[in-house]
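Example record for the data management plan.
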Amino acid sequence: QFQLVESGGGLVQPGGSLRLSCEASGSSWPYYAISWFRQAPGKEREGVTCIGPNGSPTNYVDSVKGRFTISRDNAKNTAYLQMDSLKPEDTAVYYCAAGSLYWRGQVCPVSGGVEFWGKGTTVTVSA
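Corresponding structural encoding:
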């Protein structure tokens, strides 16, 4: 069964960095686009970034452009989210997701195109 497990969350000061990892079990990994979503307390889940099956294209929500970098290592069935210059508003539970690169004409990250979700890892940005 295809499963996703996130790790790397924690408490960090504003301006700091964290690297999240998403490791998959199952042989279908190379066929999926991988996305990161996040859900802040009291807010709806939003798509943050995604990466195509072969490492491109990548797409980012405007609020994280220039600060977050998504990557993947298909030999390790693992994707990464490098988060730099973190802000308090980045505080959220971060979810890894696997699915389609495009869904109904929209490029990922789009929740409708997701087939598998991880359980999430918590990122807290606070002084």
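Summary line stored alongside the record: Residues 47 and 111 are 7 Å apart (CA to CA).
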